[in-house]
């Protein structure tokens, strides 16, 4: 089975956000970057599919700066076979431009499955997988928490408001992974050593400006200082009174 | 600025998010046409919407960022050759462009994005825009979907009766490590029931990762971002990635035995002490109110 996994380098979820002097971007000083958590599920799923099939290839694609080689190495250490970095210092503000570059990189090959995380935890765009599917004219199933593949047919489950949707689709397809799809493995020391020797191709790319521009990045409004109503069950009466009379939510 | 508002319905009735979309779309000035897709075939629906958007010469197409909207919006955008300005919490016309505000880094920062793409495809975070009265009268056109997609919905498994999705609930009662063991979430479920169908039980990442609760219930940076009227955090210390997912709630109550827990910094009202004494008492009081 030939599988592509598209990943992103993102700030760790524990990051405290500091804004750069330009007022538009994150101050990256001291920020720890990781493989986007949703992409870990995608990488894990790709590895399991290849292992189950008994043969094939898992190739990792990433659009990002030179430092994103580390992100790709993480996926290689988990067990992926090779990596491709679409190198640029500028992640486009317009997701369509990102999708075009990724689709162009995937297009020359034929993939049985193209996996993404359902979204990146930095920009919350949750659309690159769908846009790439559109550009490559492939069926697409998003935010999948359960996946079953038999031959050229896939069955996926995705969570919707008030239930779970079960979808059937033909392969090749684009699937985006939600948490719960699997339990991603930790790279073993052997894997980390092996990853250093795996092929990692670097292709410089020039994203176009597209139809969106980031004009500002600012901290959210601070919540006003709250109060401790009291201690223990004895405080509940007063809490309920405040919720009714002051906050008016009961 | 002529705008196309894409609504959602369930069981033949428009959902609250639909009125939010209409209300927000009107802020762009100019006429708003509303449409709804009466099918689970999102590929077919996306094709019909893209055709409608092109034929109607719309300047903007507005979706809601629900599970359905997040799936549908990029499909339509892709067909129109543009990206989605996703999960907006505010929007305004700016001359010929649109300025959208979107939470990034899970709400730790707000990004302002200037959208010049034509049409501008936007999605709005649910529970942020308060529907105005005029929106209630909206009569959407039902799109006829002719092409059929390659992905088929074979089944919809409904959530167990009486459970409400955390993304839709007006009241959320979330539990964390302080609950000590999975069975103890019963005390939170009882409190949720006391709210009579308006409340859902959420969970912190720690208890979801431990396998105590389903991922569907997780609130935070790698879970759901919620904005209910009332958020009650029980036995949750308030890790930054959890706060990110619930900080836009209208009113936050924290119940925790550690008076120095970071959750108290964002809470409007805090009660310090043993949750196993406090929560049942609260349940009793809420039941009295709802008699």
Give a short account of the largest sheet of chain A. 9 strands, mixed
- CATH topology name of the largest domain in chain B, in short, is Rossmann fold
CATH class designation of the largest domain in chain B = Alpha Beta
Q: How widely separated are the two ends of chain A? A: 56 Å
Q: Kindly report the name of the CATH homologous superfamily of chain A.
A: HUPs
Helical percentage of chain B: 25-40%
What does this structure look like?
The complex is a heterodimer of chains A (250) and B (291). Chain A has one domain: 3-Layer(aba) Sandwich (Rossmann fold). In chain A, strand 4 (57-64), helix 2 and strand 5 form a beta-alpha-beta unit. The model of chain A has no long low-confidence stretch (mean pLDDT 96). By secondary structure, chain A is an alpha/beta fold. In chain A, 26% of the residues lie in helices and 32% in strands. In chain A, helix 3 (95-106) packs across helix 4 (128-136). Chain B has 2 domains: 3-143, HUPs (Rossmann fold); 171-290, TPP-binding domain (Rossmann fold), CATH 3.40.50. In chain B, the strands form 4 sheets. Chain B has a 6-stranded parallel beta sheet with strand order 6-10-5-1-4-11, sandwiched between helices. In chain B, strands 14-13-15-16-17 form a 5-stranded parallel beta sheet. A 3-stranded antiparallel beta sheet of chain B has the order 7-8-9, with no helix packed on it. The termini of chain B are far apart. By secondary structure, chain B is of the alpha/beta class. At the A-B interface, helix 3, helix 4, strand 7, strand 8 and strand 9 of A face helix 3, strand 6, strand 8, strand 9 and strand 12 of B. Strand 13 of chain A pairs parallel with strand 17 (269-272) of chain B, so a sheet runs across the interface.
